[in-house]
């Protein structure tokens, strides 16, 4: 159902996926989705802001799942579980912000609401009149007489995500631009009864620091960053690997020496080689159930083995930065367990998200060899500061040599390997 600006529809589902979509074109900015959980028009504190640097609400009600690409189409998805929304929250604003230009250069921008259980589309709103805006309220989920509804909004801001967020009570740690009020075709006010007084509820989780909107993207031209300079000196460092499944990609024919198209459910494994300051070495990976530990050596833990890719949370590895002085070096890598013989034509993204500090991300869309193992990032301890170096290095194992042995040899880890299984 394509909606007009200002209209609303019921949302009967228990949980929904809110999908922002657009087309990539030369010179167009990137787009990021976000959500603000409001009580009587404002956030209770900064924890009620869900976006790329703060991807999950403490209640579990809203989660930012991240982006997926399919050709020139890109989506950024939020998941909302109505059963977990706290009683004080009566409105969830769904916003989009542009990174590197205005929305007037973004083609095919839309937001749609999909039943998380059945996949049925409940609502769809297409934004077609953007010009100089750098942030948009595309829609909102709101509570009316005990039932949730979705309203198409299409309200633009010229002050970016920072201006939009601060208008709803969020504090940010970057220098704030001059605040601009919402502009450009605000939706007509709909007659409605005054909302009931919020029900008593526990206080929202405390937030010790203002949110940080900064993103760091590692490229070939700028491949490294200091965690300390980004504020990532303690707490948990989350490493997320997301990819697409059920896509056509190239499988390299061993005899023919050429690429052959195939379809498969792709299973990638996120792994880490580590070396501690006491000289001990090892690997954290799903193979052999070597999931690691956060509270003790190696202070690294793999959450689990995800076989679904971009339509879930992907694979996640956590590093305990409270023990960063025990880490000498850490190599984060990924292997293809099944579903393909190469990373060629695979769309995958890597995000390193410190608990305190800016998110660091990069993509894996550059493979041109029949590789089944890729070094993602090398983290080294330099006088107490951890430096993240983008590797994006695709390796081709020799016949009969495992991906783990291949990456060990390339980086000189010097470990003894034995066969393992999941």
UniProtKB/TrEMBL annotation:
Disordered: region residues: 175-207
Entry-linked PANTHER family: CAMP-BINDING PROTEIN 1-RELATED (PTHR32097), GENERAL STRESS PROTEIN 16U (PTHR32097:SF4)
Biased composition (Pro residues): 188-207
Taxonomic classification: Bacteria, Bacillati, Actinomycetota, Actinomycetes, Kitasatosporales
Biased composition (Low complexity): 175-187
Alphabetical list of InterPro entries matching this protein: Stress/Tellurium_Resist (IPR051324), Tellurite_resistance_TerA (IPR017115), TerD (IPR003325)
Pfam families on file: TerD
Protein name (record): Tellurium resistance
CDD domains: TerD_like
Source species of the chain: Streptomyces finlayi
Start and end residues of each TerD domain: 3-168
Family per record: Belongs to the CAPAB/TerDEXZ family.
